[in-house]
Amino acid sequence: MKGEEQGRSEDVALIVGTDEERKAIKVLRKRGARIEGGLLRAAEPGRPVMGDLVRLKPRPEIPILCDVETLYEFERTPPADAEAPPSGASGHPGPARVVTDAYRRGWERVFGRKDRADDPDVN
């Protein structure tokens, strides 16, 4: 048994149940040090693959524990808004904080400068 365990993969899945519609299998997958939860559905021609494409090989002694063979690994790319800020950016969330002198001159040119001393509504 010891020699058999040494050749085993570090990519295993434990079947924990089915979804409410009984069309997918719920699994806990251990890849190396990571543990992930997921749903397994049968691959169908013409339907997109929404994750890794895997083949499960049940272990004879515990059939709900399966070795996982990855046939296609889904390329995980971060969303466009999660990109690192360009060099020199402040890195704060939200819109750019534009405070250059050219911006201020343009603002005054478009909206005019208001003399606060003549404005009775100034707080």
Biggest beta sheet attributes: 5 strands, antiparallel
Computed structural class: alpha+beta
Q: What percent strand? A: 25-35%
Regions with little confidence, pLDDT below 50 for 5+ residues: none
User: Which strand order spans the largest sheet, edge to edge or round the barrel?
Assistant: 3-2-1-5-4
C-alpha Rg (nearest Å): 29 Å
Count of runs of 4 or more consecutive helical residues: 2
H/E topology pattern: HEEEEEH
List keywords for this structure.
123 residues; alpha+beta; 5-stranded antiparallel beta sheet
Quick overview of this protein structure:
This protein has a domain at 8-72. With 123 residues, the protein is an alpha+beta fold.
What does this protein look like?
By secondary structure, the protein is an alpha+beta fold. It has a domain at 8-72. Helices cover 13% and strands 29% of the residues. A five-stranded antiparallel beta sheet has the order 3-2-1-5-4, with no helix packed on it. A hairpin with a 2-residue loop joins strand 2 and strand 3 (34-40). The longest helix has 11 residues, at 101-111. The termini are far apart.
Topology:
Blueprint: H1 2-6, E1 11-18, E2 25-31, E3 34-40, E4 53-58, E5 65-72, H2 101-111
Antiparallel strand pairs: 1-2, 1-5, 2-3, 4-5
